[in-house]
Design a protein that fits this description.
Blueprint (H helix, E strand, L loop, with lengths): L9 H5 L5 E9 L6 H18 L4 H4 E9 L3 E10 L16 H22 L7 E6 L8 H12 L4 E6 L5 H5 L10 E3 L4 H16 L16 E2 L3
Parallel strand pairs: 1-2, 1-4, 4-5, 5-6
Antiparallel strand pairs: 2-3, 6-7
Protein name: VWA domain-containing protein
Pfam family, one: VWA
C-alpha cells in the first residue's frame, strides 16, 4: 500500500522562521466544572493575546490544544497554528479523565509536526508538552507515562506537569523524568498567572537557539511545590 506524502503546511512555506512547538494537554473532566474551567478558558485567551502581542513569538510559537474529558474522549482543537493565527478554544467541563489517551495522542502530534518542520526545512526548538489535571486518570495511563518520560529523556520534548487541587502528585510526576520534583502545583485557581508565565516562557524560548538553553521566568506567582 502506498503511503500518502504529508501535505505541506502553508504556514511553514510562507514563514520560514524557526519554531517553538507548544502542545497543551488540558483536563476538562466534570470536576473542572464552574470556576476552574472558567478560569482556565480565561487563561487560554490571555495566552493567545500575549503571544500575538509579541512580534517574534507570534511568528515562532506553534500551538495545539488537546482537551480530554467527556466519556473517555480526547479532542484535538484544529491543527497546529502559529501563535498569530491561533484562536483559544472554549473548553467545557464534563465526564472522565482519559489522561493516558491524551498523552499518547500528544506525543504522536509532536512527532508528526517535527516531520513537517523537517520537510519544510524549518528549524525548531524542543517542543513543550504542557499537561494539566485536577484529578486522577480514568484510563490505562502507565504506558503513556513511560513513553512521555522516554520522550523527555531522549530530548524529544520538554514536559511540564501542572496539578490543580484534586490531582495526584505521584501520578503527574510519572509523566516527567524528574518525577514528583518535576510537578508544579497551581495555587488556588491562578490560571491567569500560570498562562502569563507560559507566555513569557514561550517568548524567551522562541528567541533562543535550537539546541541551546534558555533562562525561564520564575514560577513563584502561581506555583507551589506539591507535598
Amino acid at each position: 500500500m502506498m503511503e500518502h506524502p504529508m501535505i505541506p503546511d502553508v504556514a511553514l512555506v510562507d514563514n520560514s522562521e524557526q519554531r517553538t512547538p507548544l502542545i497543551l494537554v488540558l483536563d476538562s473532566s466534570g470536576s473542572m466544572y464552574g470556576q476552574p474551567i472558567q478560569q482556565l478558558n480565561e487563561g487560554l485567551k490571555l495566552l493567545e493575546q500575549e503571544l500575538k502581542n509579541d512580534v517574534i513569538a507570534a511568528k515562532r510559537v506553534r500551538i495545539l490544544v488537546i482537551e480530554y474529558g467527556g466519556y473517555d474522549q480526547c479532542t484535538v482543537h484544529g491543527d497546529w497554528k502559529d501563535a498569530m493565527d491561533f484562536t483559544a478554544p472554549v473548553l467545557e467541563a464534563n465526564g472522565t479523565t482519559p489522561m493516558g489517551q491524551a498523552i499518547t495522542l500528544a506525543l504522536e502530534e509532536i512527532e508528526a509536526e517535527k516531520q513537517r518542520f523537517k520537510q519544510a526545512g524549518v528549524a525548531y526548538t524542543r517542543p513543550w508538552l504542557f499537561l494539566m489535571s485536577d484529578g486522577v486518570p480514568t484510563d490505562q495511563w502507565e504506558q503513556a507515562a513511560q513513553l512521555c518520560r522516554q520522550a523527555e529523556e531522549s530530548q524529544k520534548t520538554a514536559v511540564f506537569p501542572i496539578m490543580v487541587d484534586g490531582a495526584s502528585a505521584e501520578v503527574m510526576g510519572s509523566f516527567s523524568r524528574n518525577g514528583v520534583n518535576g510537578v508544579k502545583m497551581l495555587k488556588g485557581l491562578q490560571f491567569k498567572e500560570l498562562f502569563l508565565w507560559l507566555s513569557a516562557s514561550m517568548q524567551v524560548v522562541s528567541q533562543s537557539t535550537p539546541g541551546g538553553t534558555a533562562q525561564l521566568p520564575s514560577t513563584d506567582s502561581w506555583a507551589s511545590v506539591p507535598v
